[in-house]
Amino acid sequence: FLYFIVLLSMKWLIVSFLIRVLVLILGEVNDSPNGIRLLPVNYGDIDYEVYSDAAVFVSKGESPYNRQTYRYPPLLAQLLTMNTVFGKAAGKLLFVVVDILCGAVLMTISSTDKETKLINIFWLLNPIVINISTRGNADSLVLLPILLSLLSLRRDSLKGCLLSGCFLGVAVYMRLFPVIYAFNCVFFLIVSSTSWLNCMKKVVTHGLSVLATLSCLVGVGYCQYGDEFLWVAYGYHFGRIDHRHNLSSYFLPSYLGGHVVGGFLPQLLSVVVVSFVFRRTPEFAWFLSTMLFVTLNKVITVQYFNWYFALAPLALRYVTISTTVWVSVALFWVCALVNWLGWAYLLEFGGKSVFVPLWASSLLFLASNTVVVGVVIRSFDGKKKIE
User: Which residues of the chain have pLDDT under 50?
Assistant: First the structure.
């Protein structure tokens, strides 16, 4: 606790926290019925309205799943019951605080100016990250245990394996996607062990701690809300189709024909391959696994970028790239995203029939992500000594 207090006194954490609070306040002013309209549309995330409504049901002793489209574990709604006491923006402030705690965890590994700059660029001062948390997205509650799991895994001890497994279990409970890190966990524990006995102890300890933590949390949710909890919080996401605000290259095929058969196979194959190839550097493997998983997903929204932004400062310590290449790749990625957002705006708010240009922009965004992954892999230096 004292260690985190010291970290929170660091200037970049304080500055990034104040920026988030300012943006949050401006967002509340914009969305208030009696406030000053700063934007042509509401700033707040529609998902936050869903969380808040579900929290109201929980505060009344009812099921959060009485709120249609609430498709998350009950713990999220239970946490946001604070909104009924402290006001509707309390949950957003919670997400901002956890956002900063993610930055604090990243700062614990920062030993050079380059690493501090990476943390600032990709997390603390990243406008996309700031936008997502202040609009009311809860993904920081998933990313914090992911980061803690990764750093615990690196401790190379049974206690580290136990803690890593527990944190990973919490992350999988909150969102399903962190299960992809299990592949690299196994590969890393095998190659980092001094003997087969030591290897088995680590793998079993990590695996059982994941299962035990996840089983306890899921068990509590099942006792409270039964089969509805399992289906709505988890089962629904396997067949989810999102036609409109979707950056995925599967956007138009899904819109025209429904389910894309076998769409998960490229994801599974790419995750397994990078988890094995970069098995000795879990930070790098987790980052690449996440970026490829998101890039090849059937549904992509901007909030998913946070999943790999949080891991980028840890992974890119192993990368040596010139400033010119960095800037070029970043501009390509940003331009592809802005291009997509322009067509999406015409579809969502302008009511224009721009499905084909929107899909073409999704393909361009896929290309930009592929370039980023390719450049990062080619610039990987596994011989770097990282403390």
Answer: 2, 5
